[in-house]
Amino acid sequence: MSSSKELLSYSLELLKISEVRPHEEVKTRNLSEIMNSIKQVGLQLDPVIVDEKTSVALDGMHRIRAIQELQLKRIMVARVDYSDPRIGLERWLRAIRYPSVSKVEELKVALKLKRVESMQAAMKMVDSGESSVALITEKMGLVSSIRAKGIERFSLIREFDRRVTEFETINNFEMQNKVESGYAVLYVPEPTKEEVVESGLTGRLFPPKSTKHIIPLRPVNVRCPIELLNGRMSDGEATSIFQELLSRMAKKMMPAGSLYAGRVYNEPLVLYNP
């Protein structure tokens, strides 16, 4: 589908599930709900966004895993040019509400945290690469003395997750309000597109909920029948039927800020079957 100057182009396709490369781990407790939905509805509703050059998946990790667990052979994807600067990449941060002194002390040991002069100083050290991760509150900043590089920087998130089971994932814009409300925030480096691709190609995955991609023309509600995914027909036959279905689907542009499936999207959507 062609895009305007401000938006992105994509192509909807069926890929072998073995060809799609996730870059992030999943939370297994969310899988059963997605698997049950696919089985009961008999559809993959939304395509997984993948890099057209490497087939590294940018989002939809739970859908990928669910389709693997259901032993389906194909998956519906939207291929995009990941090198396009209009595709945004952001970090998720983890926030603990009113952490106990004992929990902070536990994290200090596990992440080798040491105190610095302020929250702002801790953030600056992480952003500059001087430290791999920080724990910040309104009154203090703690930075890790572990000097990890590249993807290994994000292994410290996994150490945090082993010790904190209840936390909120927030974006950069929410952080100030959270720390002013008594939260402690795990401040992590911004991931890069190169690290995302490396993670997908090598299988050294990011922890769950580490990255957030902004796709400036995201297709949703495409509704691919499970019969095209289960492998009982040839690749050519499945592709032909899928393209025929697409040619008959109505589409509607939805602006940034639209609500779809209980979530507000910050990017424009293309709603199929409106």
Can you put this structure into words, describing what you see?
The protein is of the alpha+beta class and 274 residues long. The protein is 30% helix and 25% strand. The model has no long low-confidence stretch (mean pLDDT 93).
Element-level helix/strand string:
EHEEHEEEHEHEEHEHEHEEEHEEEE
Q: Tell me the distance between the termini.
A: 17 Å
Averaged pLDDT: 93
Query: What is the CATH topology descriptor of the largest domain?
Result: Conserved hypothetical protein from pyrococcus furiosus pfu- 392566-001, ParB domain
Portion in helices:
25-40%
Question: What strand order characterises the main sheet?
Answer: 7-9-8-11-6-10
Largest sheet: 6 strands, antiparallel
Number of strands: 18
What class do helices, strands and sheet pairing give? Answer: alpha+beta
Number of helices: 8
* Anisotropy-based shape: elongated
CATH architecture descriptor of the largest domain: Alpha-Beta Complex
User: What Rg do the Cα atoms give?
Assistant: 20 Å
Strand content: 15-25%
CATH class of the largest domain: Alpha Beta
Low-pLDDT stretches: none
Q: Number of folding domains? A: 2
